[in-house]
Every structure is written in C-alpha cells, then in structure tokens.
Specification:
It contains 26 helices and 43 strands. It is globular. Strands 4, 5, 6, 15, 16, 17, 18 and 43 form an 8-stranded mixed sheet that branches. Strands 8, 9, 10, 11, 12, 13 and 14 form a 7-stranded mixed sheet that branches. It has a 6-stranded antiparallel sheet with strand order 27-29-28-32-31-30. It folds into 5 domains: about 1-25 and about 780-855 and about 925-980, 2-Layer Sandwich (Beta-Lactamase), CATH 3.30.450; about 60-215 and about 420-465, no CATH class; about 225-405 and about 875-910 and about 1015-1035, von Willebrand factor, type A domain (Rossmann fold, 3-Layer(aba) Sandwich), CATH 3.40.50.410; about 470-595, 2-Layer Sandwich (Beta-Lactamase); about 595-685 and about 690-775, no CATH class. The termini are far apart. A hairpin with a 5-residue loop joins strand 2 and strand 3 (about 135). Helices cover about 30% and strands about 25% of the residues. With about 1050 residues, the chain is an alpha+beta fold. It is a single-pass type I membrane protein. It comes from Rhinopithecus roxellana (Golden snub-nosed monkey). This is Calcium voltage-gated channel auxiliary subunit alpha2delta 4. InterPro entries: Ca_channel_alpha-2/delta, VDCC_a2/dsu, VWA_N, VWF_A, vWFA_dom_sf.
Length: about 1050
C-alpha cells in the first residue's frame, strides 16, 4: 500500500530516522543532556532512596495546618476580650465629640490646603505582606458606607469605644507576623480595619462596602437555617410593589449560605413553585441555586387573588417533612411571607402546623405604603416567634431584610456560645489582575462568635481576621509530593478551598474576572474520575485513609492529557470543618532521592549567575522579619548557609537537596558557556536558549543569542506561569518530559506574541531533572526538508522528496498538533491533523473526552425557564402601562432615594448584566497517539477516492512523520480544533431535574442555636395590633417602622470572630 504513490515504506523510515538523528545530535549538543546524565550517574552511589509514607505525610501536614489556624483564632480571641472589656467600661454619651481616622477622608485637603474634617494626616507605606498596598501598621482606620452618617452619636460612641483595639491589633501582629487583615465590624455600620488603609470610593463617589452585608457576618450571626419564601403574585402586587417584592427575595437569598436550605413559592389563586423541579423539597442555598432562583424571580408576573392559607400549609408541610427525614439544616426553620397584606390571621393553619411549640418562625414583610392590613401581618409574625417589617421603597429593603437575622442570632448570643465559624474563601480584589497562581488571590475567613451581658441579647459586632490560603498551603511543601503530586483542601460541604485545578479567574476580553462560583466548586468537579465519589464521601466524613484511582490529567490548557495512577491520602484538620488530601502519583511520588554534599562545595556552586530557585517555594521563611522580606529565596539560602543571619529559619531538607543539585548541575554552566563561545556570528542560529530544572526547584539557563533576539522573553519568567515552578505544580515542560523515556526529547510548539511566532520547546526527561532547549521553528523545518531529500540504497536514485508536489508530508506530535507542513497556515495554534477521525478506526490515535466543570460560556440569547408564566405578554404590557401612570408621582418622589441607594445586590445585578460569559459545563476532545505503534500504513476513504498514507515514529522524540498522496481531496475532513462544547442540560428533562434535586453528601456544622427560653419571655414588646397577641409563642414586632434602625449587627470582612453584647 505504501508504494502506491511511488514512495516505499523504507524511504519514509529513512526520512524519519535521518530527521530524528539530526535532531537528537543537535539537541544533545546544545542542551548538554548527555553530560548531565553522566554527572548524575557519577553520584548515583551516594544517593539515598527513601519510600514516602503518604499517610504519615498527610497527618504531618494536617497537624501543622491545625497549629497555624489555632494561632489565628487565638489572635482573634485577644480582640474579643479587648472589645468586651471596652464595651463594658464605656458609657454612652449622646453629645460625644471625637475625631477619628476616616479611611475615606484621611490625607484629603480642602481648597485652602487644610486637612478636611476627619481627614488628618495618616502615614501610609507600601507593604509587600499586604499585597503591596499602602498601609499604616501602627494604627487602624475606620470606614463607613455612604448611607451611614459619620458623626452619628452611635457611630462616635462605637468608634471611641473600639479605639481600645488598636493596641491589641499591633500586639497580635508583632506576636504573629503572618497575620493579615484584622478588623472590627460594628452593628451600627462602621468598620475598623488594621493595618489602616486609604479607602477609595467608586467612580460615582459612593462607598458601597457595608461590613454588615457580608456573607461571613451572616454565617457568624446565625445558625444554619431552612427557609421557605412565600411571595404574593396576586393582582394587587402590580407595579412597584412587585418590583420591591422581587428585590426583597433577592436580598433574602443573598443572606443565605452553603449551610442553609431554601425554596420559593409564588401564590395567587394557586400555589406555584417558581422552579417546578424543586416541588416539595428544599435545596441547598449554594451559589448556583441562589442565582437560578434569582433568574426565575425576575420572570414572576401578577394575576388573580392571593390565597395565603394554601401557601402557608405548603410551606409548613415542606419544613415538617424535611425535619422528619433528617434532611436540610436540622436547625432553624422559618417562613418568609412577602405580601401587600393579609385579610385574616390564618389561626387554624398555625394551630395545626406550628402551635404550641412554634418550631417554625414566621417573618412577614408588608410591601408598599398601605397599612390597612398591617395589623394582621404583625399578628402572624408576633404569634410565631418572628418579626414584622414594612418595606415601602427599594431603599428600605436591605435594612428591613436584615432584621430577621437579629432575631435568629439571639439564642446564640444569650447562650454565650463560643463557636468557631469558618466561612468560604473569598478573592482579594486587588490581586485579580496580577500574575501568579490562584493561591495568591484567595483568603480564608474564620469567625468565632462570643458574647457578653447586655440587655435583650443584641449583637454588638464582630472582630476577625483572614488567613491567606497561600500561607496555609505552604505547610504542604511541593518538593515532598513528586512531579505530579499535590495537596488539596475541601470543606464540610464538599467544596474545594485549594486544588491545583481550581481556576477562580476567567478572561473576558482583556480583563481578568473572578468566576461567580469560584468558591463553590465541588471536589467531584475537579476529581471527576471518582464516579462513585468515594474520596469525597470519606473526606466529608472526616475519615483518615487512602484510595487509588486511575486519572486523566489535563495539561497545557487542556490540549494534552496525562494518564496517571494516583494514590490519595486524606485526613481531617481538627477544630475546623476542613479535610486535607495529598496525592502521590505512582512512578514519581512513591520514593524520594536524598543527595549528600558539603556546604562549602554546594555554596560555591549556588553563586553561579545562571542559577535561580523557585520563587514560590519556601526554602527559607522571609515574610516574618521585615529585614528578610526584600530577600529572594536564593539570597536567603546563601545567608543561611554562610550563617550570616542567625534569625533565618529554613527548610534544611530542601536546602540540602538544592545544594546537591547545584553541585551536580554546576558543570552545565561551563559547558554552555564554551559552546556559546565556539559559535561564530556567521553560523546558522540553531538554539535560542538551553535550560534545566531539578526536583528541588533549581533552575539554570543559558542564552546562545542576544537577549533582544530571544523569540519568547516570557519563557521561564513568572509572566509565563506554566513554564516555572509554582506552589501548585512543576513546570509544564518538566511534567511532559517526566512521562517519556529518559534521554528522549519532547517537542511542544509554543507561541510568543501570536500565531506568527511559533517556537518549539524540547525538554529531555530525567528521573531527578529535566533539560531542554528553545529554538525557532524555522530551524526545525529546514532540518526536516533537508532530511527528506535523502534516499535509501534499496530504492535506488532519489526520485521523490517531501518538497515534491505529488507528496504531502507532515510532522505532528503525539497529540496530533501539526509542527511542519508545506502549507504554513496549517501550523497554527490549536490546529490538529484533520484526518484524526478516520484514524480512530485504524487504532493509531485514540480520542479522549475530557470534561471541564468550571468553564465559562456565552449565555443563550433567550432564557428558558421552567417556571410557568402567570400572565400573557399583552397583559404584562398593559399592567406595566397602568403602573407607569398610577405610580409616576411616587416614582418621582423616590427618585432621590433610588439614585443614592447603592448596595452589593444592585452592583452584583448590574455586573451580571454586563458579563458576557456564565458558568457552564463543557466537554472537549484530546487525541493521543498509541506509542506502541512505531510505524503503520493504510488507506483513508475520502468520498469518491482513496488517500494512501504512511506513518513513522521519529526516534527519541514525541514526533511522527506522516506522508500522504495529495491527489485525493480529503477536504471533507476539516481540521479538528480542540474547541470545548457546552454540555446542554434540558431543564424539563427528568435527568436534569434529578441532577438539580440531588442532595450531595455534606456534613452539618457541629453547633445549632435555634431557640432560648429568655427570648420567649422578652418577645412581643412593642407589638401594637388590634388585639393582644396569643400567649402561645411570641415574636418581635415594632409598633412603627420609623423607629431607629440601630439594632446592633455582627459583621465580618473575610473571616472573623463575632462579638455579642447582651
């Protein structure tokens, strides 16, 4: 078959062997790989091999993490004690006059050059420990949102009282210099943060951050909860009332977290689940479900008459069934009734389902300015341990919704419980656009709720601190885990805190943005090969153990795949809701090589100018002592070895390995230097750069051309994260080389600034190191065309070559990417040889389907909801028209409030409107050549004709030579692009519905504070209704919504301890 177009298989093999031999000679010469192999061979007898005990390793890491986190909690406890004492010693002074450092006004001057009021001089210096932000580590500053008056008596008294925290902030930081932000968030709205910073308003001059609205505050303030929201969609809710109701629901959803459960029922003449798939159940209030509900809420339309009792019965039945089935939170339960009024008190419903125990609280929200039905709404709340509030404008929504949290928090406050609350990680917005791994950007909040005596069990506020996940993962050193190994953390809900495949950012245009669900990625979505979720189940159950799994690991942005057998070792981290996992890949992580060399010899070789160490790895601790923070890791190691700095703490095992690698690889510098000197300027430019890396994170490199001529200047720099050692992983070239035979070269076509500047990177494999070169593609092509002019003696005279018009020749890599072709446009980024589909049947190349459960896709043009429309489009248009006429005056009156009202919910909604991409699941193909097939030939069916081909492996590489007959047109097979395809779920399908209803295994928080007898005794003061409330179970009902909204609230800024005052 191979001779059908005049070229024998022997000739193709000769071309492949000649090209492969030329490449091998060139690459071994410029890389120095043979010299490096010899040097390691010379010291082989001195190497010590130790087996890695994965369980012992994970236990040690877990213990270190536990100790670190305990120190953070102790720092926050110091703040709690100081805050409690300061509040007890403070007497409220209505006429207090007090100047403080307002974060927005500091260093601001008026037109006369004088400092503005509350804006005195505040020294700020850039600090690397705080993301290079200008800070003042001597004192804290105070931030207030725009809608809080900075001289209100409550604010002034609170700020004055909390001045006592400054000394504790500084003392904590001096005791533990790894601490990050410390803060106190007051229920009155001010936010004291250490170190002090300058706070910049947004482009509209508005300060949107309100510490009381943050998710961690809510989780610290209340125990887990099951919530059923009932919304009136009858005809009377038209216009602005419905708009307010929708925003009220959205605001309630924003107060829920991953430990809460929720459902939403719309009612008029009938009861409608706004998501029919969730009928009769509660679903976890994770980000995906909350956002799904928000979309459905926006589509609600009004119609008919509101029948409240049916909706109440449905809500109570759901909550009862879930409680009896031991599902949901198994803690607080509540019904949120959102309506413009109630015509009766529905006492029979409460007698049947809720009295006398009142295990379900009922919170009522009266929508609109009318008060005709207010008494009934108050009665319902006050007789079911709830709270009544009236929301007449959009600007009222946030404060009024938050009242239910005060009620739910009181049992915890009165109990004086000291529960440690750890919340989901959040991303530091200042670091979104910076280079580096995701661990640089994620912070882990924690909170510990404490209380002290004051009347009515009202919250004073929250103090807290953040933990940078990067600092936590430093306690699982990368070098101990092998080339493909890694450590990861997950929560009691199965969400990952840290994982090398966690990708919290995505690119939209030129901007990097955090994905909406970056902190709720499930372990099963990154370790998706574990179909039975055995690993996830064991870790959520806080087990200590091990399991093995064959996995497919994506590399090179999903273009390639590794087939590995991983051993997983896992255990819990005591006193936290987290579990730790360690992965060791067989063949790479089971054993560790320990070298031996003298300090004197190693120190000399560390001083070579071509040597660098992994900047992300911790050879020495340089972030505690301010004098050490400017040191690079290499400088710190040298100072440690020369005993120049007795205070430096270093990882002695890693330093020994670096010394050993420095000694073994030192001859490479002299070799590369001599080679560069022997290359004349007139000689053909062959290689831009040679480089090597070792398993200790040591990197050497040498240029053979001027730095201005290097095709890719980002290579081996932090700007090209995949090419350097990071806290997450080894470089891509190192990982690729490790999976090929020692001494062979792996080619990877890279692109400098665009498709016009490709350059191959060819690392060679070694057990403890990888060495490689970077060259321009043009040199590779010239070598190839020259090699294919060769002819074998068997075939006689050279009658054909790949340059002839009657032959098509390609060089492709083991994943099907084209490196060399006559048609330069085929050598383009991401282009795969187009006939791969046919070769499935020939079993030369097999397709691997990969999945990405963190993808971002363009949304559909139209949103298709499962919710049934409640009115026709024409009716909706008429309703909207009537509303415009009837509510115009009210709208104009409220315009000033609407214009100044600006909260997180509105900002999030605005941002969502602008986003072009949304979270989705995708699948994509990866093609892999069968390495056992060294040569093959056959026929490709191309419609009316047949195309003959020959495939030959190119020795000592991951490349293949493909020769075909161009006379048969195979354009029916377009180039195969590795484009991801969104996995479409049909919402109405039983499969999708089952997926949405499924309740993944989770572990509930250890504590629950649902009720306290003292709350029941005090409940009901201030109730003003037409008849006295039932003595069965009382709630909290203000007589008038004009009362001051200064009930203290607990607050968090990323992780914290909640301070209560009773």
């Amino acid at each position: 078959v191979a001779t059908a177009f005049g070229t024998g298989g022997g000739t193709v093999k000769l071309w492949a062997d000649t090209f492969g031999g030329d490449l091998y000679n060139t690459l071994t010469k410029y890389s120095g790989s043979l010299l490096l192999q010899k040097k390691y061979k010379d010291v082989e007898s001195s190497l010590k091999i130790e087996e890695v005990d994965g369980l012992e390793l994970v236990r040690k890491f877990s213990e270190d993490m536990e100790n670190m986190l305990r120190r953070k909690v102790e720092a926050v406890q110091n703040l709690v004690e100081a805050a409690e004492e300061a509040d007890l010693n403070h007497e409220f002074n209505e006429s207090l006059v007090f100047d403080y450092y307002n974060s927005v006004l500091i260093n601001e001057r008026d037109e006369k050059g004088n400092f503005v009021e509350l804006g005195a001089e505040f020294l700020l210096e850039s600090n690397a420990h705080f993301s290079n932000l200008p800070v003042n580590t001597s004192i804290s500053s105070v931030q207030l949102p725009t809608n809080v008056y900075n001289k209100d008596p409550d604010i002034l008294n609170g700020v004055y009282m909390s001045e006592a925290l400054n000394a504790v902030f500084v003392e904590n930081f001096q005791r533990d210099p790894t601490l990050t932000w410390q803060y106190f968030g007051s229920a009155t709205g001010f936010f004291r943060i250490y170190p002090g910073i300058k706070w910049t308003p947004d482009e509209n001059g508005v300060i949107t951050f309100d510490c009381r609205n943050r998710g961690w505050y809510i989780q610290a303030a209340t125990s887990p909860k099951d919530i059923v929201i009932l919304v009136d969609v009858s005809g009377s809710m038209k216009g602005l009332r419905m708009t307010i109701a929708k925003h009220t629901i959205t605001t309630i959803l924003d107060t829920l977290g991953e430990n809460d459960f929720v459902n939403i029922i719309a009612y008029n003449d009938y009861v409608h689940y706004i998501e029919p798939c969730f009928k009769g159940i509660l679903v976890q209030a994770d980000r995906d479900n909350r956002e799904h509900f928000k979309l459905l809420v926006e589509e609600l339309m009004v119609k008919g008459v509101g029948v409240v009792d049916q909706a109440l019965r449905e809500a109570f039945q759901i909550l009862k069934q879930f409680q009896e089935a031991k599902q949901g939170s198994l803690c607080n339960q509540a019904v949120m009734l959102i309506s413009d009024g109630a015509v009766e008190d529905y006492e029979p419903v409460f007698e049947k389902y809720n009295w006398p125990d009142c295990k379900v609280r009922v919170f009522t929200y009266l929508i609109g300015r009318e008060v005709s039905f207010a008494d009934r709404m108050k009665w319902i709340a006050c007789n079911n341990k709830g709270y009544y509030t009236q929301i007449s404008t959009l600007a009222d929504t946030q404060e009024n919704v938050m009242e239910y949290l005060h009620v739910l928090s009181r049992p915890m406050v009165i109990n004086h419980d000291h529960d440690i609350i750890w919340t989901e990680a959040y991303m530091d917005s200042k670091l979104w656009t910076g280079p580096g791994s995701s661990l640089r950007k994620l912070r882990l909040p924690h909170s510990l709720c404490l209380s002290f005596q004051r009347s009515h069990g009202i919250l004073l506020g929250v103090v807290g601190s953040d933990v940078a996940l990067r600092e936590l993962m430093k306690l699982a050193p990368r070098y101990k885990l092998g080339v493909h190994g890694y450590a990861f953390l997950n929560t009691n809900n199965g969400y990952i805190l840290s994982h090398p495949d966690l990708r919290p950012l995505y690119r939209e245009g030129k901007k990097l943005k955090p994905k909406p669900n970056y902190n709720s990625v499930d372990l099963s979505e990154v370790e998706w090969e574990d179909q039975a979720e055995s690993l996830r189940t064991a870790m959520i159950n806080r087990e200590t153990g091990t399991l093995s799994m064959d996995v497919k690991v994506p590399m090179d942005k999903g273009k390639r795949v590794l087939f590995l057998t991983n051993d997983y070792f896992f255990t819990d981290i005591s006193d936290t809701p987290f579990s730790l996992g360690v992965v060791l890949s067989r063949g790479h992580g089971e054993y560790i090589l320990l070298g031996n060399t003298s300090v004197e010899e190693g120190l000399h070789d560390l001083l070579h100018p071509d040597l660098a160490l992994a900047s992300d790895w911790i050879y020495c601790i340089t972030d505690i002592d301010p004098d050490h923070r400017k040191l690079s890791q290499l400088e710190a190691v040298i100072r440690f070895l020369t005993r120049e700095d007795a205070d430096l703490e270093c990882d002695e095992e890693l330093v020994r390995e670096v010394l050993f690698d420095a000694v073994v690889t030192a001859p490479m510098e002299a070799y590369w230097t001599a080679l560069a000197l022997n290359i004349s300027e007139e000689a053909e430019q062959v290689v831009d750069m040679a480089f090597l890396g070792t398993r200790a994170g040591l990197l050497r490199s040498s240029l053979f051309v001027g730095s201005e001529k290097v095709s890719d200047r980002k290579f081996l720099t932090p700007e090209d994260e995949a090419s350097v050692f990071t806290l997450d992983s080894f470089p891509l070239w190192y990982r690729q080389a490790s999976e090929h035979p020692a001494g062979s070269f792996v080619f990877n076509l890279r692109w400098a600034e665009g498709p016009g500047n490709p350059r191959p990177c060819a690392p060679g494999a070694g057990p403890v190191s990888a060495v490689g070169v970077q060259m321009k593609l043009e040199f590779l092509q010239r070598k190839f065309w020259a090699a294919t002019r060769q002819c074998s003696t068997v075939d006689g005279p050279c009658t054909q070559s790949c340059e002839d018009s009657d032959l098509d020749c390609f060089v492709i890599d083991n994943n099907g990417f084209i490196l060399i072709s006559k048609r330069s446009h085929e050598v383009s980024r991401g282009k795969v040889w187009g006939w791969l589909r046919t070769h499935h049947s020939l079993r030369l190349i097999f397709r691997v389907t990969m999945y990405d459960y963190q993808a971002m896709c363009k949304p559909s043009s139209h949103h298709h909801s499962a919710a049934q429309p409640l009115v026709s489009p024409i009716s909706a248009f008429l309703t909207a028209t009537r509303w415009l006429l009837q509510e115009l005056v009210l709208f104009l009156l409220e315009w000033s409030v609407w214009g100044s009202w600006y909260d997180r919910g509105a900002e999030a909604h605005k941002q969502k409107k602008q986003d072009q991409l949304q979270p989705c699941d995708t699948e994509y193909p990866v093609f892999v050549y069968q390495p056992a097939i060294r040569e093959a030939n056959g026929i490709i069916e191309c419609g009316p004709c047949q195309k003959v081909f020959v495939v030959q492996q190119i020795p000592n590489s991951n490349l293949l030579l493909l020769v075909t007959d161009p006379t048969c047109d195979c354009s029916i097979f377009p180039p195969v692009l590795q484009e991801a395809t969104e996995v479409k779920y049909i919402l109405q399908s039983s499969g999708m519905c089952a997926r949405m209803r499924s309740q993944k295994l989770r572990r509930r928080p250890d504590s629950c504070h649902a009720f306290h007898p003292e709350v029941r005794v005090e409940a009901g003061r201030g109730w003003a209704g037409s008849s006295p409330p039932s003595p069965v179970c009382l709630g909290l009902c203000p007589a008038d919504r004009s009362m001051p909204m200064n009930t203290p609230v607990p607050v968090l800024f990323g992780g914290d301890i909640c301070v209560y005052a009773l």
